[in-house]
Amino acid sequence: MPSGLLLDPRGTFAASHIEDLFGHDRLARTLLRTVSRFRGGNVVLVQGAPGSGKRHLLQRCAYLLQHERDMLGFDAHASVNPQWGWYNPWTYQRHGNLLAGFVAAIARASLQPAQAIDRARELVTLVNRLQFDGVAEGGGTGIGSPHEADPALRIRDGIGRLVELVRGGRPGRMVLFIDDMDLLSPAMRLHLLEGFRLLIAPSTELTVVASLGREAATAAIREREGDLDADTAVRCLEEYVDLGITVPNVDIRRIGPLLRHYLAPHEPHMMRAFGSDAVMGLIAAATNDHLGTPRFLQKLAVRVGQLSEFALETRHTRELSEAQWAWVIISERWPGFRRHMIRGGRDRWVELQHSMKELHTGTTEDTRRSRRKKGLITWLRDDLLLADYLRLHADGFERDAEGIYWLETLLLAAGL
Fold first, then answer.
1. Do residues 201 and 5 lie in contact, with contact meaning Cβ atoms separated by under 8 Å?
2. Taking the domain 9-246, which CATH number applies?
3. Rounded to whole angstroms, how far apart are CA atoms 366 and 227?
4. Cα–Cα distance for residue pair 337/277, rounded to 1 Å
5. How many beta carbons lie within 10 A of that of residue 201, not counting itself?
6. DSSP 289
């Protein structure tokens, strides 16, 4: 189930200004200007790792269209219509054909939704007759209207007319944002992508901007084509997509302010439990290029809040060292490595130091100790992001092994 389920972000745009905490507005403006120059009927995938802020980028695009349209810098020959739509197919999948929900989402974007929905009813009926394999239910010879010979052409024409009604005679491409496609099954994801390509004519002034992670997208392709390698799956995906962009991690300079924003409700408890510099200590340990995903920072803040409350409740309070704050981050970001280290006993911190040195120099010692730490060096080689983070803190873990075990005991007692 998606966290913070969002059917339509218009309700969150009531304020005159919403801060761009993730730093996505430049990318959002660029994307909207690019979309405005596309031919009609195109599909854009917003990709990124889980928790990278794909939904936030879609929200920022919608917010800019609604509140800061004059600042987007559209040229005289290209623009985006102010009427945009929002569709979450995950919420629709148990209530009807996903493509019927897509049509309904276009209709709901109109300034006169009742009129648009009436126009869409016949169209939704046609879409509901289409099976997921593209075959229409029922018989028929196709004799009569030329469009009856191809149900898809009839639906295409209907979507085109519906989009024109929503645009209300104003120029510019309509944009429909599609959220949470990752939560669908691979077959459902591919069904939607095929439907967009089949049912949106190039002459239709509509662009679909869909949030779909790269792994989720390639899994959808493999559902149809078999166990393809990653490059081949991406090439197959290009048949359905006109542009794919990847949401970057939060800029390292924004990690501190963003984490402080998430920590705000917990800050008083943190300072009472772990010292007046607790917030700054955690921010210093978290300011790393590989940790700049919004969802991770939000979950980290919740973990620290729970830990602070428990420390105050049990009166286990102390100022935490830099290594201890780094261990809190390890416990959230790399829980498997955390378990591996704790189960190895106190000697494993010394072992970590030797493994880091071996990883850095590329040397292998043919000793019993080297054979004991083979599992650890393999772990570090398999996860270079973890290895990079440990380069900063491995010394501290060895020097403050007692503090790490005190903190680990507190984490376990707090259920974390």
1. no
2. 3.40.50
3. 39
4. 27
5. 17
6. G
Alpha helices (H) in 287-383, listed in sequence order: 294-314, 322-333, 335-343, 347-361, 368-372, 374-382
Q: What is the spatial distance between Cα 245 and Cα 204, in angstroms, rounded to a whole number?
A: 22
For residue 168, CA distances in Å to 82, 110, 207 come to 10, 8, 16
Q: Count other C-beta atoms under 10 Å from residue 256's C-beta.
A: 17
What gap in Å lies between CA 8 and CA 333, rounded to an integer? 31
Phi and psi angles of residue 345, each rounded to the nearest 5 degrees, phi first: 80, 180
Between CA 107 and CA 121 the distance in angstroms is 10
Q: What backbone phi and psi angles, to 5 degrees, belong to 138?
A: 85, 170
Q: Which two tokens stand for residue 223?
A: 């559902």
**The two three-digit tokens of residue 190, written as one number:** 């591919």
**Residue 9 DSSP class:** G
The tokens for 24 are 């996505």
Ranges of beta strands (E only) in 212-274 are: 243-246
CA–CA separation, 154 vs 149, rounded Å? 9
Count of CB atoms situated within 10 Å of the CB of 63: 19
Confidence of residue 314 (pLDDT cuts 50, 70, 90): very high
In the block, tokens 């974007």 appear at 109
C-alpha 38: how far from its chain's center? 24
Tell if the pTM clears 0.85, that is, is over it.
Answer: no
pLDDT digits (tens, 9 = 90+) for 22-80: 888 889 988 998 888 888 888 999 988 777 888 889 988 988 888 887 777 776 666 88
